[in-house]
Amino acid sequence: MKQIYASILLSLAISPFAAGRTTSPIRVACIGNSITYGYGLKDRDREAYPVVLQGLLGNRYNVQNFGKSGATLLANGHRPYVKQEEYKQALDFRPDIAVIHLGVNDTDPRNWPNYRDEFVPNYRDLIDTLRSRNPKVRILIARTTPIGVEHPRFESGTRDWQQQIQQAIEQVARGSNVELIDFHSPLYSFPHYFPDAIHPTAEGAKILARTTYEAITGDFGGLQLPSVYSSGMVLQRGRLLVVEGIANAGEEITLHFRDWKGKTKASSLGRWSLTLPTQTAGGPYIFEVRSSKKQIKLDSVYVGEVWLCSGQSNMAFTLNQSTDKEHRPIQEDSQLRIYNMQPAHETSATAWPVSFLDSLNRLQYFRPSTWEGVTSQKNNISAIAYHFGREIRDSLKIPVGIIINAIGGSPTEAWIDRNTLETKFPAILRHWRSNDFIMPWVRERATQNVQSQDTPLTRHPYAPTYLYDVGIRPLEGLATRGVLWYQGESNAHNMEAHERLFPLLIESWRSTFASPLPFYYVQLSSMNRPSWSHFRDSQRRLARPKEGIEMVVSLDHGLKDDVHPTIKYPIGHRLALLALSNLYGYTSIEARSPECRDLKCYPKSILLSFSGTSFLKTSNGDTLRGFEVVTLDGKSHSLTGEIKGKNVLLSLPASLVAQELYQLRYAWHPYTDANLMGATGLPVGTFSIGIPSSSYDSK
After folding, report:
1. pLDDT of residue 694
2. Cα separation of 675 and 641, whole Å?
3. 119 shares its domain with 190
4. Concatenated DSSP letters for 192-214?
5. Per the domain annotation, does 315 fall within a domain?
6. What is the pLDDT of residues 97-118, one digit of tens each?
């Protein structure tokens, strides 16, 4: 680190403006492959990243492009950089600063499988040779730029070999006393900047130039906090609070909160981090961060419980849209605080203007937001989120913060990070608007929205990974108690794909927040869509209560022909019951819908045993409805029955007594009037049970 700062000071000392002396410009050699060269750009003489870097650095520097298309770092690769004319020119240039970006072409099967053990020694040799020409040269080596999933060799080796090369580059940096810069992370969320999966567009080259400029100068724009940090925010109680931000390289950062004060320095890459000790609930407090040149002061900061509410339109459904008239009046409360991440454009059936599409491509989808207390004027917030927060707040009597970032129509894959999908479900990333893994309606709506500028590179919120990049990554590291999730409508066409995606979603978010977050989700409601019964049953099977993954039932408030039930209070209440029971000590309440745990067949009846309730009942005391049995011929037959405590006894009609039964189902019609519920009114959700021959009892 000391050498880094010494190098920066040396650069300043020899600048033409230092002490009024006139010296030669600082020589910067950009060494690399076709990405450095500017292959694929319309005008590489203006758009290649070394040219853009020259403009950023100004006339105090002389930046030269020594990129060679196809070059490998490996000396035994198919086109070794050290055997190219550009390499000789770079050495003759005797740079004061050398920026090296090599390794992308080393993923070729001709190279890495055969010569991987030579990569680190070859890189060391290159560094040593540069130092032999100028012992004072400052060397920055870059993690390689992303390679897209559309690359023809992505799964056959490129994906895995690039990861190994990144590790090797990091090893070189640690062992060679050079600076490591990151060309990968800043571009990873912009796959549309790589039309051939390898070479960045002019916009991508600008990002590389900016990244290099920041590394050379240490200028990262001064002190910054993540966007979710604002006055009025709620910090999670009872957790170590890791606060991360940006500042200029080497700046001393001081954080003061309540009676705690911490100090650190920003790294050479402009990053800093401080960890607040666990906090008890309370507030309002002042949260203050300082550098030598800037102060950020957040007023009215609280400590309490923080929840993230996400999904698609049923989570986004607002209080002013709901019909829960007895629950709609908003109770003003300065300690129930909302961070409402609202999109700049709803995904309605319209063509978006070109200006907005340009913003989408720059990952600018959500409007700027701040934390606000609940008031009677704030009725455009998620109804479910509000009702959940209200109940937690009333029960715990401490501040509660709710983050809302639900987007209407959004599919699960849009909320998962790129690395997870590239590793575990790469097929869903390819050509997504013609990809059968993705619901046709999702693809059609996206095409309608982007028709003003419809190119293969145009982004859309429904694209895989997009909403993660704009809605989850900005929250990375924020201490959060748990997640509420209401989504599935846009994945119900393919429950098998969703059964892969949903666990990946949870894995992705738990990794992002560095915590095994409780994940409470809503089973789809009752609606007349053919696939929904199977999908609801699949959602039930995805629950993992011991792992903090639990489901609430909503089918009793569905609408036959409308995907948006207008009664939301019961859903918020049911989610709150789970949280109160699991996390806040209210263990005596019945927080879960009853579940069928056992089935026994008799000659003329079927006995079902349920758990999770003290007794069963039907809504309004009506006759039991919703059970059916499937015979081996695939036909279903409705069953009548009666409730006996926590059991249900179903009668078999005479026509079925001699037949072998295949499966029992409950609430199987997409739109159902099934009416079984637990003692406290929590409904039984859609389920199916196979009936093996061994389940028969002769009694």
Report:
1. 55
2. 12
3. yes
4. GG-TTSSS--HHHHHHHHHHHHH
5. no
6. 999 999 999 999 999 999 999 9
> How far is residue 331's CA from residue 287's CA, in Å, rounded to a whole number?
27
- 534 & 622 share domain: no
CB of 26 closer than 8 Å to CB of 54:
no
SS3 655: helix
Domain holding 403, by residue range, is 372-583
Q: How far apart are CA 573 and CA 383, in angstroms?
A: 11
- Token output for 690: 């196979």
Express each pLDDT in 303-338 by its tens digit: 999 999 999 999 999 999 998 877 666 788 999 999
| Residue 528 token pair | 């007349």
- Please, is 346 exposed, middle or buried when counting C-beta atoms within 10 Å of its C-beta (0-12, 13-18, 19+)? middle
Q: In what order do the strands lie in the sheet with 627-631?
A: 636-638, 627-631, 661-666, 687-690
CATH code, 656: 2.60.40
Residues 6+ apart with CB under 8 A from 560: 526, 527, 528, 671
Report DSSP state, residue 529: -
pLDDT at 8: 39
Q: Is 231 exposed, middle or buried (0-12, 13-18, 19+ CB in 10 A)?
A: middle
Domain match, 610 and 483 both: no
How far apart, in whole angstroms, are the C-alpha atoms of residue 455 and residue 459? Answer: 9
pLDDT of residue 324: 83
- Structure tokens of 536? 């609801």
Whole-structure pTM over 0.85, yes or no? yes
What pLDDT was estimated at residue 658?
78
Q: Which pair of tokens denotes residue 550?
A: 């639990």
H or E stretch covering 314 = helix 313-316
Burial of 609 (0-12, 13-18, 19+ CB in 10 A): middle
Q: 34 in a domain, yes or no?
A: yes
Rounded Cα distance between 300 and 537, Å, is: 45
Residues of the chain scoring pLDDT < 70: 1-22, 327-329, 693-699
Residue 270 domain flag: no
Q: Please name the residue that has the structure tokens 């059916």.
A: 628
Which tokens go with 73?
């770092």
Distance CA 522, CA 543 (A): 11
Q: Are residues 667 and 614 in the same domain?
A: yes
Asked if the structure places residue 313 within a domain, the reply is no
**Can you read off the two tokens belonging to residue 653?**
């009609």
Of the chain, the percentage scoring pLDDT greater than 90 comes to 91
pLDDT of res. 336: 96
How far is it, in rounded angstroms, from Cα 652 to Cα 632? 15
Give yes or no: residues 613 and 579 share one domain: no
**Res 232: pLDDT:** 97
Chain position carrying tokens 């403006």: 17
Q: Among 165, 190, 217, where does a domain finish?
A: 217
Q: Could you tell me if 233 and 371 are in contact, meaning their C-beta atoms sit under 8 angstroms apart?
A: yes
The domain total for the chain is: 3
Return the SS3 of 146.
coil
Q: Contact, 36 vs 48, CB < 8 A?
A: yes
Decide which of 159, 189, 217 is a domain's last residue: 217
Bridge partners (DSSP) listed for residue 80: 72
CB 400 within 8 A of CB 307: yes
Q: What's the pLDDT at 567?
A: 94
